[in-house]
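In response to a reviewer's request, we include the raw inputs and outputs for one of the modeled complexes. The four entities were modeled together in a single run.
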Amino acid sequence: MNSKGMTDLVLKIENLVVHYETEDGIVEAVNGIDLQLERKRVLGLVGETGAGKTTTALAILNLVPDPPGVIKSGRIIVNGKDILNQDIKELERIRGKDVSMIFQDPMTSLNPVFTVGEQIAESIMLHEEVSKREAYERARELLELVGIPQDRADEYPHQFSGGMKQRALIAIALACRPKLLIADEPTTALDVTIQAQVLEVMAEIKEKYETSMIMITHDLGIVAETCDMVAVMYAGKIVEQGTLKDVFNNTKHPYTEGLFNCIPKINDRKAELIPIPGLMPDPTNLSRGCAFAPRCSYVMKECHERPVELKRINDTHMVACHAYDIQDFHIRRRVGKR
Amino acid sequence: MSKTKKNIVLLLLACLLMSVLSGCAPSSSEQSDVGPSEEPQETAYQKTIVIAPALDFVSTETQVTTSGTSKSVFLMVFNTLVEQDTEKGGLIPSLAESWELVSDDTWEFKLRRGVKFHDGTDFTAEDVKFTIERGKEQGASKAKLESIKRVEIVDDYTVHIIMSKPDVDILYKLTDPNCVILSKNAFETLSEEEAYKIGTGPYTYNRWEQGDYLSLLRFEDYWEGTPKTEEIVIRNIPEAASRLIALQTGEIDICISPPQIDLHYIAEDPNLTLLQIPGANCRYIGINSSKKPFNDIRVRQAIAHSINRKGFVEAVYEGNATVHNNVMHPGNLFYKEIEGYSYDKEKALALLAEAGYPNGFSATIYSSSGTVQKAVATVMQAQMAEIGIDLEVQSLETATFNATVAPGSDYDMCVNGWGGYVVGPDNALRNMFYTGGNNNNFGFSDEYVDKTLDEAVSISDIETRKKLYGELQEYITNQAVFLPIAIEMIDMGVKSDLEGFVPPQGSIQKFKNVYIPIE
Amino acid sequence: MIRYYKSIMIILNRERDLMIRYTIRRLLMLIPILIAVSLVVYFIVDLAPGDVVDVIAPDDASPEDKELLREMMGLNDPFIIRYARYMQGLMRGDLGKSYVNNRDVFEVYFSRLPNTLLLALAGAFVAVLIAVPLGVVSAMHRGSWKDAISMIFGLLGLSMPNFWLGLLLIIFFSLKLGLFPSYGSEGWSSIVLPAITVGTAQAALVMRTTRSSMLEVVRQDYLRTARAKGVPERTVIYKHALRNALIPIVTVMGTQLGVALGGAVFTETVFAWPGVGRLVVDAINSRDIPMVTGCLILTTMLASFLILLVDIAYAFIDPRIKARYTK
Amino acid sequence: MPIIQNETDKKAVIKRYKRRSMWAEVWRNFKKSKGAMTGIIILIVVLSACTIGEFIYDYHEDIVKQSFDQRLLRPSWKHPFGTDQYGRDIFARILYGGRYSFSVGVVAVIISFSIGTTLGIVAGYYGGVIENIIMRITDVFASIPSVLLAIAITAAFGQSLLVLMFAVGVVGVPAFCRVARASVMTVVGQEYVEAAHAAGAKNWQVLIRHIVPNSMAPIIVQCTLRVAQAIITASGLSFLGLGVPTPSPEWGGMLSDGRAYIRDYSYMTMFPGLAIMITVLAINLIGDGLRDAMDPKLKR
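The model returned the following structure tokens for the whole complex.
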């Protein structure tokens, strides 16, 4: 795996630390994460709001808003290029071409004063040597590809529905066939029926363009449908990571367990939903120990004191929990089919 | 620019030499026009003279407007029948070549021949008749022409003006710009607005950008000869300080009323000359004698005694005014030197106490919003505070002010000016002090004054009149309803080489002959 | 280019009728406002003590003469009658003649208007030249020294009474340095100081508007989208952001220009600038009711046209607004 | 507590949090703003100087009394700002004159606030014909250039401090009306207002309990900024000779008096103008600070 992995890695993140330095204190948004993604794979990045998923994604584009965001340390290699050590010109060439991103809220992510066609074409013209006419032609084709009639390219975003806007954003993101696509909760703002359509479009295009993808979501259902790999984030750290199978069928971390317990089960409607007690810790004031400890039902004394690190369970599966220092520790969740 | 200037200078030096050699300066207008055979040694004149008066030109309606600047312009665009000689005094012929009283009530005017209006038509007796009869109906000329019953045309160049009552001042009244001769033909053929622009004067209206400037061009066919200056521009620079700067930078040639505090700039500048002419305007404090406590003459006298005129002259006029004690203007033929009220605080306090106000009282003094008027009110307020009278100053704009202090209204005191003395003694005193006089806003009514005024106006013997008017002046001054402060000075900064300037007629400037020889 | 061409074509073709209808509707709405303005102004000036006769009558006019003059000018009629008479003329498009010098109000106004326009546009030029870039820089570098300097400029400009600024400029540039004339309307140099005086307050306002509008826009998600697709920062700011921030900026500039059309009274006073403002002030002082009312009707009309233009400009800036108009 | 809260829940939590501590929050933000604090300090200094002036100067002796031997003295230790053409100490006059500017500014804004806000709230809340009538009248007054309108009003009612306050106040009404209406309209659309209606509250109860308090923020900011504007307008009218009657040392009037002496005694125009500017600057700084503190969107 290692030997061929080197060439086949689309993304490699090492020890990424991102802080937001605000007047109210320093928010430790991302606290030293490592991630890898191979070509054509889809990684699901899961966690509550505020876990640091979006910040991680923005760091990959080197678009963490500065101020207040500061990338304290780490290395991000996208398609062989060290993102954090590029000059601005080079970065602008990488963005949209090597890696692009679909943002959370389609309602606000399109510029209201330009036509949808223009916004897609702009991306093409920036990265490829094409005439304006060609770029617009390509834009129309892309729209068609995401399931929007070509002649609507001359319309403005306000004339589009939410689902169509998200498709348009997908078209923008995919305009230059990026190696890596980051989708930040692409369906959260959409109706359930539209969600499925959008996901389908994404899946198709990903296949067609051979794009790798990071799917940021808090919806485990989407992860199950679309992802090959899963990383669970909590308070700026990855607490569990592995293949879809590893994480879903062989859940190790109490937090991941909690996430699953909050999902109603289609075949057992009477089953009680078990919420995770408490709230996310104040990100300006994280304890030295495990950040999940205050909410953890398996909590031990040392959880509060000793920092946790990812421990390898098998080739692909890793978890960050002190409990696994103890032999025979099992979480209560009955693994298997949902 | 500088090259042409140099050439002009050379040319002018040559001219100057010539005129010295020939032994006469080109001062008389007949000689200044050059004969056809002469060499190009004719004196050159600055093409345009720019004048910046304190107030803007507001109207072309000669018989309606009272604006001083407009009236000054009328004297350039039109002629009157008779003109005042402001240098030597007396009257000089203008459109009328001669005049005499042919009977008790009839004046005969012999008119000048060969005078052309700007539209090319001839000036005749018809125009005089038309102008006077029209003027009897119009706002501003009405008062001047009131005593005229009618005008009879004897022939094209002779008119008889028949009076309805004796008026010793009528000739002076006819010199007023409101009585300039208009063209009958123009009023019959053109719109009123256009007709008011046709005169017989040395300049014609060229362009008027209201609020900005008025340009006059010389009238080539002017009967006294073509003026030396081609164009006269009246430029509106309301701010006195800016006006003076414009004079110093050479953008204007005549600056009327520069800031009094800055007059030294003109005196220090070798290119400029400061002209200070005692003006017609007498600044005074008016008291409403029909109102308590001012109906008590002792109160009025107390106020009169507590006025420190020197203080006014210094603080308001920077010394550029003459202290004045009389109700009549010193320029008037019938003016009498009288003592007036001394500045005597003790006496004032005693009078006040006697009148029953040992601790003073409070009242309001009104002024218009003009700088001088406001300053006078402010100084008055401070001076009255010395004897315990607490004055509130109200500075109102002209309309409100005039309405507030109109005859019969209920004000306490006001700051006012009176320049009506140029037209003769009766006009001056009757308007102000006769019971119900047009300007008698003092609520002043005195049998003796009324009787004496009526008597004086019907007497033709100068000495007797002088005596009567002298007594009147003393009497009225004593009544202390009109408290004179100072005779204001007309300050002007002009280019040192400006010629042809004559003193103004009252507050009306006479600019029709100004020119600047270029040397 | 294509974009603008296209927007124009779209309006011309598909929505032309609707935009025209919108414009006409707005113009029709203006009529009652103008009538109301005339009533209010006529009434207020009429309320003032004294009338034009007190101003124009000669010192030695008798009270009877003045009464006669009032009768002749119709000043003795009740307010309603006089106003009705005025309205009659107005309906025929006749703004009447000045009480003071019998000149046509319309003519006098339009002889002054070029000066006012010149000053207004020069002021706006100063404002835009300085203010918009300053506002953008300030917003983009929020909290930096650049922002601080811009903000101080904005605050000073807003806090400085412009008649005082005008006097300061005169003291330094006319009196001490002799660089520019302190009065008048002739030549390019005489407009410099008035334009700075008028422009400073405007610039301050436009700068502050630009800044806050840009700050608002800078947080918008679509800028992140643009950056994520690799749009260079300059383009992000000046194309994507500024275009969206333009609405409040254009609004402020439009209203400022509208205010300037009413005449920069203080600046005109300080610099003896023969504009509309002084004309109206002088007319108010001499109770020249037809002149005041006429000038204010015309000013209101022009300012309303300007606001209409601004509103139409919105449609070109923001398609969402166009959609609202053409609904 | 479910981890994945839906959007409305989240908003509700935030809203409750915000309502409870809104003023505390505003004050907290406000305190942090250097500009606003500078403004407050300047304003306190100016106000206390004016108050001290009130005690140490006698109106008749120090403010209006003329002494001709003291005329036009340049600034010195004895007369920090020099003396004017009547020999009055300009420093004393400026300190004393502060009252006019402040009182005109505050009273004028109270006038425009009470009329404008009431009309705006009524228009924004009731809508329909009422709104139409109010807004059209507002349009009429807003479309007359404000300085000219103020001049006409002072001409109509005569020259006094009260008229000046009234004129400047009336001119500010349309702005308040519009701000209030816009603010109310955004609040009217909020869920909690609908909730209150649904709970059977009467119109006026909703208006007083929910709408007015919640739409005040932009109006308060408007108030502060308008005070600054009103001070400038009022001194401008005085500058044109339409303000507080002489010899009251109103700043704009003093400036106007100094114009005639601008060439040799420019300090006479310098100091009153400076006084106006500093005061207005301080108020603007406070207004800016308030706006930033009240606008949650601007927080980072």
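As requested, we also summarize the result in words. The mean pLDDT of chain D is 82. The two ends of chain D are 28 Å apart (CA to CA).
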